Amino acid sequence: MDHKKNKIRFYATVATLLFAFINVQAQSNSKTFRNGRIDSLIQKMTLQQKIGQLSVFGSGHKNLDKIIREGNLGGTNGVLPGKDVYHYTLKMQKLAMQSPLKIPMFFMGDVIHGFRTTFPVPLAMASSWDPELIRKADSVAAVEATAAGVNWTFTPMVDIARDPRWGRVVEGAGEDPYLGSKIAAAAIQGFQQGNLESPYTMMATAKHFVGYGAVQAGRDYNTVDMSMKTLHEIYLPPFYAAVKQGVGAIMPAFVSFNGVPVTANKHLLRDILRKKWGFDGISVSDYDAIPELQQHGVAKDAKDADKLAFKAGVDIDLHSGTYFDNLSKLVREGAISETSIDSVVKRILVMKQKLGLFKHPFQYGDSALALSAQKRLPAAHRDFAKKAAEESIVLLKNENHLLPISKTIHSIAVIGPLAKDRNDLLGPVHALGEAKDAINLVDGIKKEVGADVAVHYAKGADINSDTTGGFKEAVGVANKSDVVVMALGESAGMSGEGDSRSKLGLPGNQLDLMKAVMKTGKPVVAVLMNGRPLTIGWLHKHVPAILETWFAGTEAGPAIADILFGDYNPSAKLPITFPRDVGQIPLFYNHLNTGRPFEKGNKYTSRYIDVPNEPLYPFGFGLSYTTFSYSDVKLNTKKLGWNDTLSVSVDVKNSGKRIGTEIVQCYIRDLIASVSRPVKELKGFQKVRLKPDETKKVTFQLTRHDLGFYKKDLSFGAETGTFRVFVGRSSASLKSADFSLVHNH
Questions:
Q1: Domain 204-324's class?
Q2: CA nearest to 665, candidates 735, 588, 568, 723
Q3: Per-residue pLDDT at 254
Q4: CA neighbours within 13 Å on the CB side: how many for 63?
Q5: Which of 50, 575, 605, 707 could cross-link to 126 by cystine, CB 3.0-4.6 Å?
Q6: What is the structure's pLDDT at 373?
Q7: Which homologous superfamily does the CATH classification assign to the domain defined by 387-584?
Q8: Torsion-angle region of residue 159: left (phi > 0), alpha (psi -120 to 50) or beta?
């Protein structure tokens, strides 16, 4: 394409994002792909060329150019921080077009929360409880990534996580399968848009199938052991939602599941994923997961591991190269048939065909957009990143209405190791996001208040240091300021893969810094930046206002400032429970009851002797600068017929003085069933924006399918009996009504 056409294409894309933000409804791609060409191509391929399609190598692989030119590789990584990805992918695709059969390449990698423009981390985005916001954010990420030639993302991570010690909790949607399923579907809609052939969409990957979020002790790569009932009820639903949404790829977890590593688990990968669910996309191993079957103790060598993984249903080997080295040997030995390899190659080539690569090998790559974004992020993308950050920030405490801060103050102190930080704002695994593009909290506040308010800064402490040398300066700037904002939390490197923590308090001496500043008597706001729930009991007890901002991305500073000074009224809710203490973990709202539930004053009930059972902040919790009142729950019937619909409604009123948005949540409980049921299960949520004194009726529709569960034999269905439905502002603040499910007569 010539420069003029690229320029027009660039501005058309930005205009679309600015005025409509890719407001495209995901729809099924009705085009029927003819596989005759694919079958003919496979017949012409050598065995090594076929095996090459089952392999992905890194950019640093020896002889990579030669291997691609010979047509012996299916794909390589394209998410390369610090590299000119557009020209790199272009070069590699040109090499592929010089190969004998001219089979185009996949270019893939982790586009987890943005590509060049960094959005809040996924756990933060989940706090918005807004699938449409997530769809749009991932649409923007897809536009930027595909402009650089990347056509496949290893996202979204849809693992349910009930243990915040696990570092990868930052990459997911939290603890609930219903919310997680809605977010999984939205992310896939965002990346794929129901039309993979579009040059601005890319193939998504649901990972890590399945149970990775339940690793023992919250330690990454540890083993997983759970009942099949828990698997089906809690951990599988988001993956099923992804498959229903048409996700192009699945990545198996590289952990042992009930004694069988998932990479070699036929029951999970073939019986459930392909046979039961009908998944027809491709499966790709996690990084080096196939040879790691040796460390799991189920394979004697790399070749044995390849045989186990291939027969279990792993189509593509990511990075290790063992498929590349050993599959031809296994075919010659008769351990694997070439016909079975052909069937996998066909799946892979059909996916490349769906991506439009055979028709237009270079359609993924927009030089004007890619090269422009290297220099300056599109304004429309920045604007949306700010909106996403605002909707993801959770107000945890606001004693005596300290927030929002009045702009009539004369001075403000911004203290803490994260106050001027840019890199940590981006969070872990931020693709091609750059710290130079991020706006920190100090700069965000300065822009917000202007020249009339003095902004005093002191670092005070380092995140991972016990030194107190900066305390004196921090106390000094606090003393000469009207209000103090403390920016505390984790570094980006403390969350993510391989970054599990045994202690969840503020690292280093940040808590001591907070205590020193609190002694000044100044009003203090804690602004937390982190990738997981933290144990912040002291802050909750002593600090009047607390904002959970997570790692909010490129526009973190302006977004946080908007909330601090009231230009945006927070509405986010927690997608995961905040424990009081690590000893409570795992702690989640949808637990089973016990035969001896807690009873105050009764020693012989389920309890701790040193901490309450309840969390510090429950699932679904989040405050606003206004207040909302709920009417009693109203039902259209007390007896729900087997084939009928229950209408559950409440009147929600803004009883405060500011316009605000409330996330109204609906839960159920099956009171008597053939197996014990959770004390609550989320079944719906709605966002409602209300003016002061305005009231709106919010209605949820439930059918017997919503009341169903997995029974002793793992069959799914509802049972007649009595149920309780709850509606309210969090999993711990609800109003309820009872009804019965009966057979129609």
A1: alpha beta
A2: 735
A3: 93
A4: 7
A5: 575
A6: 84
A7: Glycoside hydrolase family 3 C-terminal domain (3.40.50.1700)
A8: beta
Euclidean distance between CA atoms 22 and 136, whole angstroms: 7
Query: How far is Cα 486 from Cα 402, in angstroms, rounded to an integer?
Result: 14
Establish whether 286 is a catalytic residue.
yes
- pLDDT number for residue 569: 98
Burial class (CB in 10 A: 0-12, 13-18, 19+), 58: middle
Q: How far is CA 162 from the centre of its chain?
A: 14
Q: Using the CB atoms, write b or e for 157-184: b if 16+ within 10 Å.
A: bbbbbbbbbbbbbbbbbbbbbbbbbbbb
The stretches in the chain having pLDDT less than 70 are 1-35, 745
Question: Residue 10: its pLDDT value, please?
Answer: 45
pLDDT of residue 34: 55
Measured distance CA(107)–CA(31) in Å, rounded: 23
Residues 221, 165 contacting (CB under 8 angstroms): no
Q: Do domains 204-324 and 628-742 have the same CATH topology?
A: no
Marked catalytic residue, from 163, 176, 286, 424: 286
C-alpha closest to that of 157 among 429, 494, 394, 425: 429
Per DSSP, the residues of 313-339 read T--BEESS-HHHHHHHHHHHHTSS-HH
Instruction: Determine how many CB atoms are found less than 10 A away from the CB of residue 622.
Output: 22
- Select from 2.60.40.10, 3.40.50.300, 2.60.120.260, 1.10.1040.10 the CATH code of 628-742: 2.60.40.10
Q: What is each CA distance from 634 to 267, 470, 481, 558, 738, in whole angstroms?
A: 44, 57, 50, 41, 10
Q: What is the residue type of 223?
A: T
The type of residue at 118 is T
> 3-state secondary structure string, 179-247?
HHHHHHHHHHHHHHCCCCCCCCCCECEEEEECCHHHCHHHCCCCCECCCHHHHHHHHCHHHHHHHHCCC
Whole-prediction pTM value? 0.95
Residue 745 confidence (pLDDT): 63
| Span 677-716, pLDDT tens digits | 999 999 999 999 999 999 999 999 999 999 999 999 999 9
